[in-house]
Amino acid sequence: MKNKLRLLPTVLLFGLMACGQPPSTVPPVTSPGIEALQRVAVELSPVSRDIELDGLVEAVNRAVVSSQTSGRVTALPFDVGDYVTQGSVIVRITDSEQQTAVEVAQAQLTEAQAQFAEVDQQLQRIQEVFARGAVSQAELDKTKAAQKSAAARVESAKAALADANQRLSYTQVVAPYSGILVRRLVDVGATVAPGTPLLEGISLEDLRIRVSVPQHHIGPLRQHKQAKVVLDSGSVIAAENLRIAPSADAVTHTVETLLELPKGSTATGLFPGTLVKVAFAVGMEEQLVLPVEAIARRGEVNAVYRFTQDGQLEFRYVRLGKMPQEGAVVVTAGLEVGDEVALDPLAAAAVYKQQQFKQSK
Q: Rounded to 5 degrees, what are φ and ψ at 335?
């Protein structure tokens, strides 16, 4: 019995050695679900080197509508700030004189047509008689000339009627394009003449940004001809066209540059008169770029879930830079080339919490 007790520690020792390795050599346990996380590698990508300047949004189509006839303003259907569709009547002017002119022109046309009909019938009779040799060639030629003269009077009367109708149409001023009414320059009851300013409006369909660029940046701008608008939300809108003035201002030493925006830009909050940031490309450089959806935002703090070498997740704070394109963001600090991060921060957060819970036991 004593011999058996002496052998027991030895048996237990060999049993423990047979069961496994020491704790220090046990491989790390991978958190459940971590294999299902989609990874994205941090790589260097060519990104444009930009300069940011202030720009002013303005409407491409901004016009002052003036009167094209004389009269008194009888109605202004729209007020400042109203949206007006193309072709809508925006000013009505008295039309009694214009209506009278139309009636006179119509009467003159009717008279000219009647005279032409009479001369034309006379010409037909003369031609029949001339064929039988009853009238001279001179009489026939005279009747033909009278018929041409009557036809010319008809055409003249038609032109006069068209002109009178056109002048009558000027008594109802219509919107040349859809837009916003920004100023009323006359009131109801005011007497106007041809050339009198009536209303001012702008179109929101076509917008552009005017930027005064320092002259030392113009060289790279002419070379790259790329620019984008940086919104307050952080998103960007690429300019469709970039026009640079051929000369600089002698006082400010800046060059006026116009950027045309894509249609529908008002949906992003850009309206005429607003001040925006414009980023002009002046070169290229390589920077770390990640998809925006891989960023975990905690208030004003940005972070990612980084995969470590031992198969775990690490919550790593990062510093972000600009957005070179839609859906991508530059990482200026916190990561290195070759690091792998989780593409879905929500799924990674669940795995990370489970990992922390197991380590705390």
A: -135, 160
